[in-house]
Design brief:
Number of strands: 0
Largest sheet: none
Helix content: over 70%
Number of domains: 1
Strand content: under 5%
Distance between the termini: 33 Å
Structural class: mainly alpha
Number of helices: 6
Oligomer: single chain
């Protein structure tokens, strides 16, 4: 049992540092996402717009998925930061592309049309999963 506690003592600070770094990166990415979108999610959510809440929640989860992949596959903290930034930038670009493809989306979100948010969530989560899977290849090449 002593080995378990010793392992915890040695590993817990690293866990906190790595997870805290990933959490901070997620917060920054969400802030950038909120600034990039043509509608004001937080104001709409505060006003009771459930569709805006769905869209924002999908974006947060979609940003977290590739970042979680980076966290799981990184071999060092600088590695996590580098690949985390790459994944978040690519995901934000994918979001912007999705927003451009789904024309009239800002109006539909503001008018609380759930269908628009559901399609938005689906495309954002799909791009997040593809990006997260793609991040495993660079990680394996670094280890191999």
């Amino acid at each position: 049992m002593g080995a378990v506690f010793q392992s915890f003592q040695e590993g817990f600070p690293t866990f906190l540092m790595w997870t805290g770094t990933a959490g901070l990166m997620l917060i920054i990415a969400v802030a950038i996402y909120v600034l990039l979108t043509p509608w004001k999610e937080l104001a709409l959510v505060r006003g009771g717009n459930g569709t805006a809440g769905l869209a924002l929640s999908g974006a947060i989860v979609g940003l977290a998925i590739p970042l979680a992949s980076c966290l799981a596959s990184s071999v060092s903290l600088p590695d996590l930061v580098l690949w985390g930034m790459v994944s978040l930038i690519l995901q934000l670009l994918a979001y912007r592309f999705t927003d451009l493809l789904l024309r009239d989306l800002p109006r539909r979100i503001q008018e609380d049309e759930a269908g628009a948010a559901i399609v938005l969530i689906g495309t954002k989560l799909a791009s997040a999963m593809l990006l997260a899977a793609g991040l495993w290849d660079p990680a394996l090449q670094r280890l191999g």
